[in-house]
Amino acid sequence: MMSELRPMIGIPTWSDVSQVYSGVPLSGINQSYISTLQKVGAIPILIPLGLDTTSLRGIFQRIDGLFLGGGSDIAPRLYEKGSREVLDTSDLERDWVELTLTRWALDENMPMLGVCRGIQVMNVACGGTLHRDLRNHGSGIKHDYIFPHYKRDRISHNVSIAEGCYLHGIFGDMLSVNSMHYQGVADVGAGLQVMATSEDGLPEALAAQSHIFALGFQWHPEELLKNDARNAAIFDDFLQAARSHWRN
Prior knowledge:
By secondary structure, this protein is α/β, with parallel strands linked by helices. It has one domain (about 5-130, about 185-245): Rossmann fold (3-Layer(aba) Sandwich), CATH 3.40.50. The protein is built from 6 helices and 13 strands. It has helices spanning about 30-40, 55-60, 90-105, 115-125, 165-170, 230-245, and strands at about 10, 15, 25-30, 45, 65-70, 110-115, 130, 155-160, 175, 185, 190-200, 205-210, 215. The strands form 3 sheets. A 9-stranded mixed sheet has the order 4-1-5-6-13-12-11-8-9, with helices on both faces. Helix 3 (about 90-105) packs across helix 4. The relative contact order is 0.16. The mean pLDDT is about 90.
């Protein structure tokens, strides 16, 4: 396959420590993101942490699309006015890398796809806020079916899809999704359209308006490809947008 038909998709990593070499610091990634993107025709490029702005910008200028995966909690000080708090589960290096890349992608019309934490990063990048813990906000349904206690492809609840949006053209009025999170979108950021909501009213899918392709999902569509083949359309369209970005 010609290289121009295989766009390069950047995937930011996260901070981890080795379980083999006495806690040596690592940059980690869920391999399902890599395998899914490769299967649909992308060249996945892992973006390490610890880079300066010049190095990160150099990588950004060489990729054709940005994929934001799931993982740790975003530091509250980044979305709560007046807060200086960093949660024990926050990864400040990752927060900086992903928010910087997301803002560049939004400003420069680079195709972008975010899942789980990824939709939250998109929302914060656009000035939105998050619920720190849905269990403390009277959420009507359980959202935290988290691995390894539950399978990653477990269907957990339904989402209602807004008529006329991108997702409606693929799935219609309703979609059954997996759910592996306890934080979620609160106030929606500027320029973002809500495409889907859960049964308790939580925004579950966002799209950046006036952008070639910038979508975020609170669920993990990459884990549902075997359950519902229609999910492949999301990744196919993402790659097609990235190909167009490469040609331009």
